[in-house]
Structure formats: structure tokens, C-alpha cells
């Protein structure tokens, strides 16, 4: 996305019911300092004065240094990541927007916040969360700031090495039953048209060369999934497991095993259930909508990735398949091998919910027992 689209000045600053939140992220960054980003969150009423899904988010850099933050970690008018925690009457509201596998951010991927600068965006939550049912909703921004830094060279990290989190205080709202449902938004990287089925896999907008490449990746991904399922099914607890999923407990191990049984079963489908869409034109590896199995949108970086090995085509298919709620329902807590290894050490429960952790366990590169 172009930087001009990342933040829009809020068109309305009216509060609904006086609700407002403005707090920094959890403490624990470099030198034990709290996050320099202060987050404000307030409801934007519709023409009738009711809440239909829009909130205004403000992000203020309270430090004396310029902050660089990946754009996808900051709210914008187009949903690019799971940035909010939303509950209705105490129950979590499902995220239905895109989950995207990304590579390391490039210079153009960062938003720049100068010292004291505030960026504002109006976000329509109904684009990516189901707000169609009435009830008491609680909304909070909760965005990990991986790769974010200050101009003094410090990374925005907690004392345990995990990314700081841009977190707002919760905003409590009442939504009538006629409140906004999911509003369609354009796919973040586009989507292909036309459809064909080759060797049991459906393809949309793919050339013959692309179909051949993806076909090889599907075969390799099936091999990865079968191998990972077998490792866990045998009860093996070696460096391969602990590197990516952390210290052993029987419950967490059982969860990992169940995930790969489900991933293997999903990838083994060969009657057109798996759909690969080649229409994405963004610099992602791939993305999916978690509640829309089993369509995987492959993007520009996918085509330059190796067939197997670290961040490979086959591994990307494992990553994306794990996101589907009917499979493992994983999230994107961190990206990259370094981030995934630290997540396993410091927060094994989140590692079991992290798609890249599943990919790296399956790719097993370099190989571990």
C-alpha cells in the first residue's frame, strides 16, 4: 500500500457515549522503557448517531526520536492485519480479514512518525470483524511492533526480546442488532479470475507455467506435512520441536500434533477443494481469509522463493493452510526464523498459534532431530 493511504485524517472526532482510550503499549522495551507510541481510540458515530463499526485511532510518538513502524502494524482504512481484539458480551469476535505472509520489510514499507507527531486513521471494523449481532462490544488495538525502531537505533522490544505491543485501553460500545455486518473490501493484493482444475487442485488466474510451479509446491508441501505429522505422532521431542514450539508440555505437544494432522488432511484433498489464486500483485508471499477455506492467494515474493527450504513455496502453503479456522486457526504473531525462535523461548503458547512457526517446523531447515 502507498504511504498516502496508510493514515487518513479523521473526518469525525465526536465521541460516542464519551468513550475514549489513550494509553501506551505494555512496558519493557530497550533499557526497560515503555513504548513511545501512545494509542487513542474512540468511536465514530454514523449519520443516525449510532455505532456501525467505525473507530478513530490516533498514534502519537511521545519520544524525542523519529519512529519507524511497518505500515501494516498501524491502522488504516484498508484492513491488512489482525490489529484489534474485539469481544461481544465477553466472547471473542472472529477476525475474517486477510492473514498475510510477509518477508522482511523494505524502506518503503515503513511509516515515519517524527517526535511528537500524531497519525490518525478511521477504521471500519465491520470490514474484518462480524459486528452484525447486537450486544456489548469491547474493542482494543493490540498490534505487535516487530521490526519497529527509533532513530537512535533502538528496536521497540520488550525486555524478553519480543516486540513491544501498540495497545490501547479497551473501548466499550453497545451495538444494536441491526449493526454493521462484514462489509466487503477489495482483496489486498487483487484476485485472479477464471478457473481450472489440474491434478486435483483448482487454479484461478494462473498461467500454465505458474500451474506447473504450484503443482510441484503442493506435492512438496504434502511431503512436509506428512513428515511433520509423523514426527509428532511418534512422540519425538528433539531440538526440532523445542526450537519452534518451545518447552515441552503434554498439552502443547498434543496441540501441535493435532494441527499437523489437520494440515496434512487439508493438503491431501485432491478433488478441487484446494484453490490457488495467482491474481495477487503485492510484494507478499501469500495470504488467505481464515474463514474461507481452502483458497490461497499467492503473490510476487512466492514466485521467487525456492521450492523447498526456509521461506519456500512449499513452506508458504503450510503457513497459509494453518491459518484456516477449520484447520489450525493460526495467527501471525511474528515473522521470520529469528522472531519465531525467540517466540518459542519466551511464549510457547503463542508459538503454537504462529503460522511461521508451523512453516519452519515443517521445512526443518537446517535439519534437526
Describe this structure in words.
With 369 residues, the chain is an alpha+beta fold. It has 8 helices and 18 strands. It has helices at residues 208-233, 239-245, 250-267, 300-304, 313-323, 337-346, 348-351, 355-363, and strands spanning 21-24, 37-43, 54-61, 67-70, 84-88, 91-92, 99-101, 110-113, 118-124, 135-144, 149-150, 165-167, 171-175, 195-198, 201-204, 275-277, 286-288, 295-298. Helix 1 (208-233) runs antiparallel to helix 3 and helix 2 (239-245) runs antiparallel to helix 8. 45% of the residues are buried.
Please report the number of helical segments: 8
The outline comes out as: globular
Uncertain residue segments: 1-32
Average pLDDT confidence is 89
In percent, how helical is the residue content? 10-25%
How big is the Rg?
A: 21 Å
Instruction: Write the element-wise H/E pattern from the N-terminal end onward.
Output: EEEEEEEEEEEEEEEHHHEEEHHHHH
Strand order of the largest sheet: 7-17-18-16-15-14
Q: How many β strands by DSSP?
A: 18
Largest sheet: 6 strands, mixed
User: Termini separation (Å)?
Assistant: 41 Å
> Would you tell me the structural class of the helices and strands?
alpha+beta
Beta percentage is 15-25%
Write the layout of secondary structure elements.
Layout: E1 21-24, E2 37-43, E3 54-61, E4 67-70, E5 84-88, E6 91-92, E7 99-101, E8 110-113, E9 118-124, E10 135-144, E11 149-150, E12 165-167, E13 171-175, E14 195-198, E15 201-204, H1 208-233, H2 239-245, H3 250-267, E16 275-277, E17 286-288, E18 295-298, H4 300-304, H5 313-323, H6 337-346, H7 348-351, H8 355-363
Parallel strand pairs: 15-16, 16-18
Antiparallel strand pairs: 1-2, 2-3, 3-9, 4-8, 4-11, 5-6, 5-10, 7-17, 10-12, 10-13, 14-15, 17-18
Helix pairs in contact: 1-3, 1-5, 2-6, 2-8, 5-8
Amino acid at each position: 500500500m502507498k504511504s498516502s493511504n496508510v493514515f487518513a485524517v479523521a473526518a469525525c472526532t465526536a465521541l460516542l457515549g464519551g468513550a475514549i482510550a489513550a494509553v501506551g503499549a505494555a512496558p519493557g522495551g530497550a533499557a526497560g522503557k515503555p513504548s513511545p507510541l501512545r494509542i487513542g481510540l474512540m468511536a465514530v458515530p454514523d449519520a443516525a448517531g449510532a455505532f456501525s463499526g467505525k473507530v478513530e485511532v490516533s498514534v502519537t510518538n511521545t519520544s524525542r526520536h523519529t519512529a519507524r513502524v511497518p505500515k501494516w502494524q498501524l491502522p488504516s482504512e484498508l484492513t491488512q492485519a489482525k490489529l484489534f481484539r474485539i469481544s461481544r458480551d465477553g466472547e471473542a469476535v472472529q477476525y475474517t480479514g486477510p492473514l498475510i505472509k510477509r518477508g522482511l520489510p523494505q524502506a518503503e514499507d515503513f511509516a515515519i512518525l517524527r517526535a511528537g507527531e500524531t497519525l490518525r486513521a478511521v477504521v471500519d471494523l465491520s470490514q474484518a470483524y462480524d459486528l452484525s449481532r447486537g450486544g456489548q462490544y469491547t474493542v482494543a488495538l493490540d498490534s505487535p511492533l516487530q521490526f519497529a525502531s527509533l532513530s537512535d537505533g533502538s528496536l521497540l522490544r520488550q525486555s524478553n526480546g519480543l516486540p513491544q505491543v501498540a495497545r490501547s485501553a479497551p473501548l466499550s460500545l453497545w451495538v444494536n442488532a441491526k449493526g454493521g455486518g462484514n462489509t466487503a473490501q477489495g482483496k489486498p493484493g487483487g484476485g485472479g479470475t477464471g478457473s481450472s482444475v489440474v491434478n486435483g487442485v483448482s487454479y484461478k488466474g494462473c498461467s500454465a507455467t505458474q500451474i506447473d510451479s504450484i503443482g510441484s509446491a503442493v506435492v512438496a508441501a504434502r511431503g512436509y506435512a506428512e513428515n511433520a505429522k509423523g514426527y509428532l505422532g511418534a512422540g519425538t521431542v528433539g531440538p526440532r520441536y523445542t526450537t519452534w514450539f518451545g518447552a515441552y508440555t503434554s498439552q502443547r505437544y498434543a496441540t501441535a500434533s493435532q494441527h499437523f494432522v489437520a494440515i496434512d488432511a487439508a493438503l491431501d484433498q485432491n478433488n478441487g477443494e484446494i484453490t490457488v489464486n495467482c491474481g495477487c500483485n503485492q510484494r507478499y508471499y501469500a495470504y488467505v481469509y481464515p474463514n474461507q477455506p481452502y483458497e490461497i492467494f499467492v503473490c510476487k515474493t512466492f514466485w521467487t522463493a525456492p521450492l523447498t527450504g526456509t521461506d519456500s513455496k512449499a513452506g508458504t502453503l503450510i503457513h497459509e493452510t494453518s491459518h484456516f479456522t477449520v484447520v489450525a486457526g493460526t495467527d501471525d504473531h511474528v515473522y521470520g526464523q529469528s522472531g519465531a525462535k525467540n517466540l518459542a523461548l519466551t511464549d510457547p503458547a503463542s508459538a503454537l498459534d504462529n503460522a511461521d512457526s508451523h512453516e519452519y517446523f515443517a521445512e526443518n531447515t537446517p535439519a534437526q532431530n
